[in-house]
Structures are given as C-alpha cells and as structure tokens.
Amino acid sequence: MSLQRPRRGLLIHSAHQRDNLIRVRHRPIIPQNCSVRVCTAEECAESFVKDVTKMIRKTALQLGAALLLALIAWNGYVALTHIRHTQRIAALTLQSSIIQAKISGVLNDLADMETGQRGYLLTGNPSYLHPYTEAQDKIASDFAGLRAGLANRGENERSLESQLETLANSKQAELEHTITLRQRGYRHRAFKVVDSNEGMEYMDKARELLSSLSAAETSAFAMIERERNASQSKALKESIVANLALLAMAVCLCGLVRYDRRVLEEGAAHNAQQLASRDLQLANLMSALSDQARSNTSAIEVNVRLLLQEYGGFLPRHAHECAEQIEEASAELEQLRQQLVGGPDSNEDEKPAYEAVA
C-alpha cells in the first residue's frame, strides 16, 4: 500500500492556520476592561477607621441607653422619695391637728363641767348636770388622745401634759365636792367653796398650761410647714434637673440613633455600589473566560479536523479514534460552557476558524 504525500500547499495552509489558532489560544484570559483590584494601604486604613467608628457608635448607643435608663430610675427614685416625705409630713400635720383638737377638747370639757356645776348649785335642778356628766365622760378619752399625740414630742410638752392632767383631776375633785354638798342640802357650804376661788385658780392654771401646750404645738407645726416647704422646693429642683437631664439624654440618644441609621444607610448604599461593581467585574471576567474557553474548544476542534484532513492518511486507526474522542470531548466542553453562561451567546467567533479549514 503506497502512502500519499500530502500536498505542500495544504501543509503551508495548515501551518498558517495552526499559527493563527495558537495565537487565539494564548490570548490573555482577563481583558483590559476587567481589572482585579488589590486593597491598598489607604483602603485598609480607611476600613480600619470605619470599623473603629462603628464600634464607637455602638458603644455610644449602649452607654446612652444605659444612662437614659439610669436617669429614668433616678427620676423615679426622686419622685418616690418626695412622695414618702410628703406622706410623712402629712402624717405629722395630721398628728399636730389632732393634738390641737385634743387641747381644745380638754379646755371645753373643763368649761362644760364648770358650767354644769354652777347651774346645779344655783338651781338645784339635776338637769343642769347634763353638761357636767358628758364632759366628765369625754375628758378621759381626750387626755388619752393627748398623751398618745405627745408621745413623740419633747420632754417639755409631755411634762406640761402631765401637769395639766393632775390639775384637771384636782379641778374635777373640787367640782365633785361642791356638787355633793349641794346634793346633801349644804347649799351655803357649797357656795362658800366656790367663793374661795379654788376652782378659778385651777381653771386659770389649766388655761395657762393649755396655752403653753398649744403654743409648743403651733411651733412644732410651723417647723413641719417649713420642712414641707423646703421638701417641696428641693423636690421641685430635683425634678426639674432630672427631667432636663432626661430630656437632654433622650435628644442625644435620638440624635445618635438617627446618625447611626444614616451611617448604616450610607454604608449599605456604598456596599451595594461595590457589589454592583464587583458583579460587573465578575460578569466581564466570566465573559472573558467564556470567550477563551470557546476559542480553545474551537481551536481543538479545528486542530483535530486539520490533523485528520492533512495527516489522516499517515495516522493509524487508534489515532483516528483518539482524534474523534478529542473532538467529541471538545463538543461536550462547548455544551458545558453554554450551560454555564446561560446558552450559546454567539458562534460568530468560531466561523473564521471553520472557514479557514474549508
């Protein structure tokens, strides 16, 4: 079997095509409009500053929220303290009013007892003893209330109350003695006891003691009023300071929140812009890789066809099979490329190579 020598023209043509294909195969993968950005020192420093600023904003927001809660708690504490102090002042005021009422009650009881005694001594009518009997029943409870009210007062007021109670007992004894004499028919002797002015002396001393007690209680009440006014003034100042501080902190925290939100929005917009730029670069790179892969597969197919056409007569059978397998693999690679890029873009770049073979 004689071997056919390939034509020289075809060899030159195939060599020319091979050189063209080699040039196609060695095109740069990354095109000029698809550059790879490298982080510079300035960009790294800017990124570090942004991270530090973000951490500072986060810390400021946390501290602002904590201070706001602390101010709210302090405002509540100030209000609660003022309420408790107001309740204590109100209790002291009520106690002072009760003491004044008991002082007036003791004085009225002694006066009613004396009035009933005088009416009975003059008329001998037992009905005139009705005020005396009622006052005698009330004076014991009035003294009990007065002792209870003065329990937290000074020693001077308690001493005055003790003297007053002793004097009231003496006055009651004097009144009871005259009434007993009148009941037994000793009218003249009863009036003689009255004319001795013993009862009047008891009443004058009782009025003096009651006046001293009332003056001491008035002084204590005035002190309570001064304390109440000072407490209200202090509470008002503290409330104003607390509310102003709370308002200022709320405004600052609101400003921090708005600033942080604005920074986050700007950062999100910047990140979106960077992502869009990187997506564009990735699309360009993918397009370049797709073009390179398409050129390589086209070069492989053309080389295989040129090899079979020009040197097919010199190749053994298994070489033909290998060439066919290479051609099939190239076709499968082209199909895979088309699937990755979403379908065949264009086959116009392959036409010059096939036309060169033809």
Protein architecture, described:
The protein folds into 2 domains: 149 residues, no CATH class; 191 residues, Four Helix Bundle (Hemerythrin (Met), subunit A) (Up-down Bundle), CATH 1.20.120. 85% of the residues lie in helices and 0% in strands. It is built from 8 helices and no strands. The two termini are 28 Å apart.
Structural class: mainly alpha
Shape: rod-shaped
User: What is the N-to-C succession of helices and strands?
Assistant: HHHHHHHH
Ends distance: 28 Å
Mean pLDDT: 77
How is the main sheet built?
none
Q: What's the multimeric state?
A: single chain
CATH topology annotation of the largest domain:
Four Helix Bundle (Hemerythrin (Met), subunit A)
Count of the separate structural domains: 2
Number of strands: 0
Percent of residues in beta strands: under 5%
Instruction: Please tally the helical runs, counting DSSP H or I stretches of 4 or more residues.
Output: 8
Radius of gyration (Å) = 58 Å
How much helix, percentage-wise, in residues? over 70%
CATH class of the largest domain: Mainly Alpha
CATH architecture assignment name of the largest domain:
Up-down Bundle
Catalogue the unreliable spans.
1-18, 20-31, 345-358
